[in-house]
Amino acid sequence: MTVTPRRYHITTFGCQMNKADSERMAGILENMGFQWSEDPNEANLILYNTCSIRDSAEHKVYSYLGRQAGRKRLEPELTLIVAGCVAQQEGEALLRRVPELDLVMGPQHANRLQDLLEQVFDGNQVVATDAIHIMEDITKPRRDSKVTAWVNVIYGCNERCTYCVVPNVRGVEQSRTPEAIRAEMEELGRQGYKEVTLLGQNIDAYGRDLPGTKADGSHQYTLTDLLYYVSDVPGIERIRFATSHPRYFTERLIKACAELPRVCEHFHIPFQSGDNDILKAMARGYTQEKYRRIIDTIREYMPDASISADAIVGFPGETEVQFEKTLQLVAEMGFDLVNTAAYSPRPATPAALWDNQLSEEVKADRLQRLNYVVTQTAIARSQRYLGRIEEVLVEEQNQKDASQVMGRGRGNRLTFLPGDITELRGKLVQVKITDVRAFSLTGDLV
Ligand code: SAH
Ligand code: SF4
Ligand code: F3S
Q1: Residue with the nearest Cα to atom 3 of ligand 3?
Q2: DSSP 30
Q3: How close is the Cα of 164 to the center of ligand 1, in Å?
């Protein structure tokens, strides 16, 4: 007797944390005998791993879901799952909105997917959104790349930025042990992975919740200690980490990055606003002067470091003058990349209730003006690569030009070069940069 394989599809919204969770959930499903289906309409299990950081992200999910809920009315054996941050935020309410759902599961439950699905296959409609201790995952993730991998380091967030849903949906900080992180990296090294990005919402807060102090009693284990501990994992040639919070970014950490050859000179440190009163209203816990000092210190140790950030425009009460301070900060700091967003009021966050909200027109106008400065700054930053020889880790074929491959330099700029992917995938190569654009480079193998 032949058994037709059960097929699954996952659509992922949101940040790297969600992408990493999706890879782990895919690993669990494959372990259960499911096979990947690129086309959701041919899958009999569909999982939406959702994001609620902004209203637009949340709404996308509902339109996707509506379509599959319609299909489920005709094919009752279809299994429909909503995971991730919208699932956590809405919980039971999602079932009322979409009664066809079989499973609603928050991000802390990603590693429990098999257990939850068994309850579903027993005929239950399941909601798993209670706060739990995140279990170490024993299943191998199904990773999208064969070259670069994400490794979770700290889950959750203990901050309370007044605009942000993350603490509500991801729970309190939970650091994995250094041993578990290193073991995962060693396994990746054995499998031929070359680059690891250590992940956390505030990765530089790593270790604060780990029990005890170090053997000499001196201080709590930190991200800096972790970098030293994992910096010699065989095969892992490059290490990155994201996202850093300015509050926890220390000179000791900067020194470690400068000292450790495998840690890339690339930092993602959101500033959100260039104005101190807005930063205070956001409850960010630093001033723009402190932020500038961090960047200056990074550049003292690593003059060529790449620095990227996130910024929000149109926060409640933001004046034109305050907004211009954000423009000024971007122009002066010379960012390689800034992810920008118009403020979006979110459920159960303090700032959403304030009565000094700005109009959509003002927000859209500021976003456009900020994006212009971001692009101009990025173009200026790209110039430094022209004519230089960069070390590039080749990841994939260029989707738009099969005669080229694409990879990244240590500074994380996307780089294209002529070459054959079967020969070059996973190789560190020297590339002479011949052409630069705002956010990408082109060059030739040397
Ligand atoms: N933990 C990181 C950021 C995580 S959320 C930090 O604190 O820096 C990713 C980005 O989404 C944030 O940096 C912020 O720029 C943006 N963001 C978060 N909430 C938002 C909201 N309500 N409206 C618009 N952008 C938001
Ligand atoms: Fe959100 Fe602030 Fe936590 Fe970042 S630090 S995830 S912006 S609450
Ligand atoms: Fe979105 Fe959740 Fe990440 S809200 S940005 S997927 S932590």
Answers
A1: 15
A2: H
A3: 6
